[in-house]
Amino acid sequence: MKRFPTFRACRSPLLLVACAGVLLAIAPLRAEIIERVLVKVNGEIFTKSDLESRQVTMLREQGQQQPQLNNDADLKKRVEELTPQILVDAIDEMLLVQRGKELGYRMTEEQFNEVLTRLKTDNKITTDEQFQAALKGEGLTLTDLRKSIERRMIIERVEQAEVFGHIAVSQDEIKNYYDQHTSEFTAVPTVTLREILVKVSGDAKSVNVGLDDEAKRKADSIRDRAVKGESFEKLAELSDAPSKSNGGLIGPISRGDLDAAFAKMLSTMKVGEVSPVLRTSAGYDIVKLESATETKVLPFEDARQQIANKVFATKQQVDFETYIRKLRASALIDWKVPEFKKLYDDQVARKTTPAGGGSH
Question: Does domain 189-294 correspond to CATH entry 3.10.50.40?
Answer without folding.
Answer: yes
